[in-house]
Amino acid sequence: NRIIEYFGDGPASFSTTGKGTITNMGAELGATTSIFPFDDKMADYLRSTGRPDVAEAAMAVKAHLQADAEVLANPTHYYDEGI
User: Fold this and answer.
1) Closest among 68, 2, 74, 79 to 37, alpha carbons compared
2) What residues make up the domain containing 41?
3) Which of 8, 40, 70, 75 is deepest in the core (most CB within 10 A)?
């Protein structure tokens, strides 16, 4: 069982629906789940699909929905494997 966490500069270039597609494909790699950091594109998507309350709740805790700075600086200290 694995959890795939996407971080760094790349995920910011993906659309929200693209991120959804990528997380669905994670199962093919044996992942039990996949996660991306929350961003403004996700909030916009939630608002455009009739979920403004969810968007605002997520925006209120956006800092907690990101990889920690220490993890970004030293990923090999925190993850079993990097790709």
Assistant:
1) 68
2) 2-76
3) 75
58-82, pLDDT tens digit by residue? Answer: 999 999 999 899 998 999 999 988 8
From the number of C-beta atoms within 10 Å of its C-beta (0-12, 13-18, 19+), residue 4 rates as: buried
Tell if the pTM clears 0.85, that is, is over it.
no
- Write the CATH number for 17: 3.40.1060.10
Residue 36 has a pLDDT of 96
Indicate whether 82 belongs to any domain: no
Cβ-contact 7, 67 below 8 angstroms: yes
In a domain, 44, yes or no: yes
CA distance 32 to 59: 26
